[in-house]
Design goal:
Elements (H helix, E strand, L loop, with lengths): L7 H10 L4 E3 L2 E7 L3 H18 L4 E5 L2 E6 L10 H16 L1
Antiparallel strand pairs: 1-2, 2-4, 3-4
Helix pairs in contact: 2-3
Length: 98
């Protein structure tokens, strides 16, 4: 998939499809909460596998049962791109399967 920065309108349209995501500090942002640390880590590993397949890696942090995710494309000058939205969608799919 070619990396392409998104316009403000394209980002707004993507956020309508990803209602739990916001833009914070110029990055797609979401915090997930899980019933336990083990479930959070299991989701994290599954999301890491998807990110690796895309060669697109998130900024994230895990504290107990919470995972905070920030997505931005560094190779495009730290802009939100189509890859960020695609990875956010994959993360949401994984969460719905959890």
């Amino acid at each position: 998939m070619t990396r392409q920065p998104l316009s403000d309108e394209e980002i707004a349209a993507a956020l309508r499809e990803l209602p739990d995501w916001t833009v914070q500090e110029g990055k797609l942002h979401r915090q997930y909460q899980f019933p336990s640390f083990a479930r959070a880590i299991a989701w994290l590993v599954a999301a890491a596998v998807e990110a690796e397949k895309m060669d697109h890696h998130p900024e994230w942090c895990n504290v107990y049962n919470r995972i905070t995710v920030n997505l931005v494309t560094h190779s495009l000058g730290n802009k939100i791109s189509n890859l960020d939205v695609a990875l956010a969608r994959k993360m949401e799919k994984l969460r719905s399967e959890d």
